[in-house]
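HUMAN:
Just now I want nothing more than another pair of eyes on a protein record. I would be glad if you read both lines and explained how they fit together. I have put the entry right below:
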Amino acid sequence: MKLINQRNKEELATQVGKAYSFLTRLKGLIFSKDLPDGCSLHLKPCQSVHTYFMNYPIDVVFVNKHLEIVGIVESMSPRKVSKVYRSASSVFEFPAGTVSRTNTNIGDMLEINES
């Protein structure tokens, strides 16, 4: 599954993991050693994230049900909690630097390509 920014056609991730159950969302990236470039984790439903028990920063992109970006937290450090984005229905977590590298902005629409 690939994740693409519709505005600029930049590929944010070539591999997107799914965290759609309570337990998989709770675990998230906790205790993982890193999030490799080109990878992402999609947490759904989700309006806020934390980075407790993580040892590396991540980029966090909050999207509504239409995959329009409603919030971005770049390089979120370990042991932090994001604000709650009430209009978000899910979240994509990326390696730190992905948002900047792909020129991704609030208001951009994302596209999930299953192929």
